[in-house]
Known about the structure:
Blueprint: H1 2-16, E1 23-24, H2 34-39, E2 42-52, E3 64-79, H3 94-127, E4 142-151, E5 155-157, E6 160-175, E7 188-195, E8 203-210
Parallel strand pairs: 1-2
Antiparallel strand pairs: 2-3, 3-6, 4-6, 5-6, 7-8
Amino acid sequence: xxxxxxxxxxxxxxxxxxxxxxxxxxxxxxxxxxxxxxxxxxxxxxxxxxxxxxxxxxxxxxxxxxxxxxxxxxxxxxxxxxxxxxxxxxxxxxxxxxxxxxxxxxxxxxxxxxxxxxxxxxxxxxxxxxxxxxxxxxxxxxxxxxxxxxxxxxxxxxxxxxxxxxxxxxxxxxxxxxxxxxxxxxxxxxxxxxxxxxxxxxxxxxxxxxx
Length: 211
């Protein structure tokens, strides 16, 4: 279906325009571990979220109007000085916990700035007029829009602080109904012999082929 083509086109456009600013999952084989996000600065993933087929814009036969939503997940991480598990330790001193907390706040600020930069880059790429059609044929995609952006809470992983965000990309496509492939019926041949009169061996042979 067309929504799959658009999803792949989004990955391609973002990957082609990343310019070492971020990495796109699916554009190349990549890991999503915290260490990988840190080393590659910022990470982006695109996936199909939901779609609707408005009856008011549809028809019984022919292509169907499909309003689709894609989720664009973004992540960035920053290293904290020291082990953040100190905050949950029952043996750590108040001074150690205070130092760990300060480190978390510093790393969180860096990660927050990084995710803001990433949001800016993704928005600029997707809303650029040159990328309006995502490199697809004229008429394949219409009404593309960024419906919303949401930043998530900070997540701590050992000595790393990860910040995530989400962007919703919507557009309208036409889905062509090709029909079900179905199964071809087996050919059945029926041979019958019917004896006519008193003459042995004289008969009528009927062959019936059903498909």
